[in-house]
Design a protein that fits this description.
Strand order of the largest sheet: 1-3-2
Number of helices: 15
Structural class: mainly alpha
Oligomer: single chain
Radius of gyration: 22 Å
Strand content: 5-15%
Helix content: 40-55%
Order of helices and strands: HHEHHEHEHHEEHHHHHHEHHE
Number of domains: 2
Length: 329
């Protein structure tokens, strides 16, 4: 089933008037739905109604008002979708409360259109949704101090290698030698392959949009997405970042790796994550006394770095333990 195309402003205005939704109510619900998409990634309307019931100083609305708004919002161009559940899953019986608000960031194109959405849904358990104060402020995300610090660090790294070593294929001359990651863009070997594989211009444009910005911004975007979906272990995410830095010619030093570890740990502990229903890990640890991750293990990529001497295992283990995590030997 195809998602409906956007309607004109005139047509939307008529639908809203017919539904009895005032401009004030519409303004609130647009912000409310955007905040839900940004805090949770994906959420069913039955849970959206429960979240609404916990808001402070919210306007008086009936459930049928929220459902009517959701039907019309499907015909608007917003940073989120409102999917019927059978548009996401085949052969599923559905009702109005089964519709899902879904962040556009979770929706791709082609055969794997819902891959990220499915990954997220596999990670979400039955914990209650977090309803932070100033809920509507999340309708327009503001960069946190932890995110800003990580972006500043990545932007300041310099590509210094003479050649770049991709994951696949031969080493190539480093065309960006001497440049900082905050000053240029780069497509890695996986992304170049994806561009060649995508035949339709629209799909190529959508993919390039996902890879847009500076190299530092792209790495941060991948990291945030990985954190939100929760499918990767901390070491797997770290290894992807190190592999990407290696491919763009950054000869990262041990002290820089230690700082990177500290920055991504700070981001993880203090960010509202989709896979945790909008909770921060440090909030859950405080509530459940140990409900968050307490240990990590090193993957094969980092083990290789230990073997060739580019990383000091004892020093890295020491730094990780200082962050409150244990290392599984």
């Amino acid at each position: 089933m195809a998602y409906p195309k956007p309607l004109s402003e005139k047509s939307l205005e008529k639908l809203y008037k017919d539904a009895g939704l005032t401009k004030e109510v519409r303004s609130f619900l647009h912000a409310f739905f955007a905040a839900c998409a940004n805090l949770y990634g994906a959420i069913a309307l039955r849970h959206v109604w429960q979240v609404f019931g916990e808001l402070k100083d919210a306007p008086k609305l009936r459930r049928k008002d929220l459902l009517a708004f959701a039907s019309i919002a499907r015909r608007e161009e917003k940073p989120y979708y409102v999917f019927e559940v059978n548009e996401i899953f085949d052969d599923v019986t559905h009702g109005e409360l089964d519709r899902h608000i879904v962040s556009r960031e979770l929706v791709g194109f082609g055969y794997g259109k819902f891959r990220l959405l499915y990954d997220l849904m596999e990670q979400i358990d039955d914990r209650p949704y977090c309803v932070p104060d100033e809920f509507l402020s999340y309708a327009t995300p503001v960069q946190s101090a932890e995110e800003s610090a990580l972006l500043t660090f990545l932007s300041g790294l310099t590509s210094t290698a003479n050649v770049c070593t991709p994951k696949y294929g031969n080493a190539i001359p480093n065309e960006n030698k001497g440049k900082k990651l905050g000053k240029y863009s780069f497509l890695n070997s996986d992304e170049r392959f994806e561009m060649e594989w995508q035949k339709r211009p629209a799909a190529q444009a959508a993919f390039l949009g996902d890879c847009s910005g500076t190299e530092a911004e792209k790495v941060l975007r991948f990291f945030k997405r990985s954190e939100n979906i929760g499918r990767n272990s901390p070491t797997r995410t770290l290894q992807w970042i190190l592999d990407e830095l290696n491919e763009v010619g950054v000869e990262i030093k041990e002290k820089q790796i230690e700082k990177l570890l500290r920055l991504i740990t700070d981001y993880h502990n203090n960010s509202r994550l989709w896979c945790l229903s909008g909770w921060k890990p440090n909030e859950l640890v405080a509530i459940y006394r140990g409900g968050g991750p307490t240990s990590i293990s090193f993957g094969p990529g980092i083990q290789k770095a230990f073997a060739d001497g580019s990383l000091d295992r004892d020093e890295l283990v020491k730094k990780i333990r200082e962050m409150g995590l244990e290392v599984i030997q």
